[in-house]
């Protein structure tokens, strides 16, 4: 017996209230529940639907949905890091290494136009912070109107990395001494770190956009 839309919605609401906020994970669980309930309804048409949902949940695993969510999250994070490093490495191979070299060279020329190198690194530190805020705003604006997908949820991966990287860079600029800013080698190392940070941000955002495109293709009727 096929379930009605109302029954599917009832299962979906139950799974959501049980802690599964991600639409893609929730859909998978709802499908699993629906298959079991359809078989049971074929045998017992007057089945207590709500009670049976709870029974299936209890039999799902010894930890309910938490084990499945943990496994799904781990798999998505591993895939994210794999895609991230794969894309980052391309900036050190032809033809993208030209972009990396050009970016470093342009910043190097700009740095040399500053007599006080401390001012230069202070400016790019503020720019780094501004980029983080723009990314945060662009990814979370109108989020309440959208479904949350595990695959595109970068709170625990993308923004953790972005915040760590930007904080590290800003702190590095803050704690460098005046003598350190007079040392060309120290400045080149600092500039290299900044370029790596930019390329890493770029790679993270690229992976996010790829995942978002894949989710949109898989769920064309859902706002991502």
Automatic annotation (TrEMBL):
It comes from the Bacteria. Keywords: Membrane, Transmembrane, Transmembrane helix. The chain crosses the membrane at residues 88-108, 120-141, 153-175, 187-208. This is Uncharacterized protein.
């Amino acid at each position: 017996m096929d379930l009605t839309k109302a029954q599917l919605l009832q299962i979906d609401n139950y799974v959501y209230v049980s802690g599964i906020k991600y639409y893609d994970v929730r859909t998978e669980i709802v499908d699993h529940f629906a298959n079991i309930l359809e078989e049971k309804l074929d045998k017992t048409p007057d089945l207590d639907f709500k009670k049976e949902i709870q029974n299936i949940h209890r039999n799902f695993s010894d930890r309910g949905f938490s084990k499945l969510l943990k496994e799904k999250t781990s798999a998505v994070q591993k895939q994210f890091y794999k895609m991230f490093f794969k894309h980052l490495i391309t900036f050190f191979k032809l033809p993208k290494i030209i972009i990396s070299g050009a970016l470093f060279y342009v910043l190097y020329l700009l740095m040399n136009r500053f007599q006080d190198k401390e001012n230069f690194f202070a400016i790019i530190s503020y720019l780094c912070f501004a980029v983080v805020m723009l990314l945060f705003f662009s990814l979370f604006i109108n989020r309440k109107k959208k479904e949350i997908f595990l695959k595109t949820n970068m709170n625990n991966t993308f923004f953790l990395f972005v915040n760590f990287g930007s904080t590290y860079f800003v702190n590095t600029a803050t704690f460098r001494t005046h003598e350190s800013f007079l040392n060309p080698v120290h400045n080149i190392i600092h500039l290299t770190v900044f370029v790596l940070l930019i390329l890493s941000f770029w790679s993270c955002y690229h992976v996010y956009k790829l995942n978002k495109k894949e989710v949109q293709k898989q769920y064309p009727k859902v706002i991502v």
